[in-house]
Amino acid sequence: MSIWKCPGQDRSFWKPEDIFESPCPHCGQSIEFWKDDITLRCPNCKQLVGNPRFDPGCAAWCSYASKCLGEMAKTIQSQPQIIRNRLEVALRKKLRPEDHDLLNRSLKAAQKAEAMALAEKTEPLIPVAASLVGPAARAKGWSREEVLALLGEAGIDDNTAGRIYQLLESGNDAGNPYRKIIDQATA
Ligand SMILES: [Zn+2]
After folding, report:
1. Which residues are CB-contacts of 99 (< 8 A; sequence separation ≥ 6)?
2. Mean pLDDT in residue range 175-179
3. In this structure, is the dihedral angle defined by the CA atoms of residues 59, 1, 14 and 29, taken in order, positive or negative?
4. How many domains does the chain have?
5. Ion ligand 1 residues within 5 Å by Cβ
6. pTM
7. What residues contact residue 143 under an 8 Å CB cut-off, 6+ apart?
8. Ligand 1 midpoint to CA 38 (Å)
9. Which domain of life is it from (predicted)?
10. Taking the CA of residue 17 as centre, how many other CA atoms within 13 Å lie in the half-sphere pointing to its CB?
11. How many CB atoms are located within 10 Å of the residue 60 CB?
């Protein structure tokens, strides 16, 4: 029996692989998960087991997230990957359809920045966000307020947003560890 299910998912479009079995990490008993199960109780050892394939991505958007995930929703919603997805959506909304070249360039820059940050074992959020927003902000001449509003819409806190904006603005901060990544990603 399911303890929690994600109420934001519609089961009528499910594929057969959306129901699967996975061994209990405590006792090895095979447990049947449905993909919207968040946790189940193992029928054998009665321990709570988290769904190994539960996609926390839906928690970024789902209006039920705080209901079914509680405090965990906040943690999930502050993950870099989730923030990046939201920033991408905010950017798509702000740009016009005729800006699709600019959007593609921004998405590619963000991808490059993420790969470089991971290779250098640096926190990816700041260089990714700066590379995602930078080219568009420059091309469109967005004001500081516009950039900060966009970052805020993606769930980035004011302090981090300020640091990202600084990176977009100044070109002579060679000591900044993110500078090289952003310059190469957006070149
Ligand atoms: Zn078990």
Report:
1. 136
2. 82
3. positive
4. 2
5. 24, 26-27, 29, 42, 44-45
6. 0.66
7. none
8. 16
9. Bacteria
10. 1
11. 21
